Amino acid sequence: xxxxxxxxxxxxxxxxxxxxxxxxxxxxxxxxxxxxxxxxxxxxxxxxxxxxxxxxxxxxxxxxxxxxxxxxxxxxxxxxxxxxxxxxxxxxxxxxxxxxxxxxxxxxxxxxxxxxxxxxxxxxxxxxxxxxxxxxxxxxxxxxxxxxxxxxxxxxxxxxxxxxxxxxxxxxxxxxxxxxxxxxxxxxxxxxxxxxxxxxxxxxxxxxxxxxxxxxxxxxxxxxxxxxxxxxxxxxxxxxxxxxxxxxxxxxxxxxxxxxxxxxxxxxxxxxxxxxxxxxxxxxxxxxxxxxxxxxxxxxxxxxxxxxxxxxxxxxxxxxxxxxxxxxxxxxxxxxxxxxxxxxxxxxxxxxxxxxxxxxx
Length: 361
Ligand code: F6P
What we know:
Blueprint: E1 5-11, H1 19-33, E2 37-42, H2 46-51, E3 54-56, E4 79-81, E5 85-87, H3 95-104, E6 109-114, H4 116-127, E7 132-136, H5 152-173, E8 176-181, H6 188-196, E9 201-203, H7 211-223, E10 229-234, H8 247-256, H9 262-274, E11 278-281, H10 294-312, E12 318-323, E13 326-331, H11 332-335, H12 347-354
Parallel strand pairs: 1-2, 1-6, 6-7, 7-12, 8-10, 8-11, 9-10
Antiparallel strand pairs: 2-3, 4-5, 12-13
Helix pairs in contact: 1-10, 5-6
The chain binds 6-O-phosphono-beta-D-fructofuranose.
């Protein structure tokens, strides 16, 4: 008798909204596209593949999860040597263990959902001979080859909501407020949330800020009767002077000054230099939690079902993405090889400038 198709599912790296919607999309569509298909969920990202910790999924596993946050499979981050290997704490290469599970289970393909790090790791699995299809998920929206990732829009909604609520208290107390949003490398989330909620200043990694220029923007607002200022800060925002430092050096500078994040660091300088009370709000992982917004449910469903279609066609080694409204399959080596930073000439940055939002440059 002809053997059926066996597909492994992995959610890896930081979680985000829409992972369960994507799992559901893959599972439900595969069951329709193929007669004899088995889906195997690996627990906690690559750990499940490494340790052979998995479960055979049943139809009921794919029901009732569309609007659930997090991931029913669990996730984790692995140690990764750039471009070389996924390793354990002692530096041992974990690829043989993953290959062993893959071969023992007779898998036809792995569907791997993750952010930039996960895409890079998936490429290593592909190079080691496994069939992989990846889906781009992250609130950071910084994956090359797709215009949007699922999780992003939900986080924009949350980030905007936080800033919306800060307006009234900032105004009542005549304070400067810094709202720090996630995004170590890219400013997509902060830019979108900042525009959506009327932030006065937006600081993102791609546009290093100059402190004196932020001070003049605040002063300008004060002169024009605005008693408060709201600054949306990406966690990876950096000053012109610190731009040349490595990430590690920057962390040390902040820590030496007793500040845990860039916003606290900047807030203490602003308070000192303006004399205006300054506060920081960091919503942190709240941005990644809770149910996906409808947009992300739809996008994750599109990505999941597209992955199922690729499996039906036996087209592996690619990442599903969306470009100009169309679902596409991008070669994994392209998607995994670079980060989608926000271009300084992106039209949305101009839109923000056009309504008077300042970038500190
Ligand atoms: O990559 C997604 C992300 O949420 C980043 O925005 C953030 O810097 C990072 O993950 C936080 O990671 P962790 O959940 O491991 O603290």
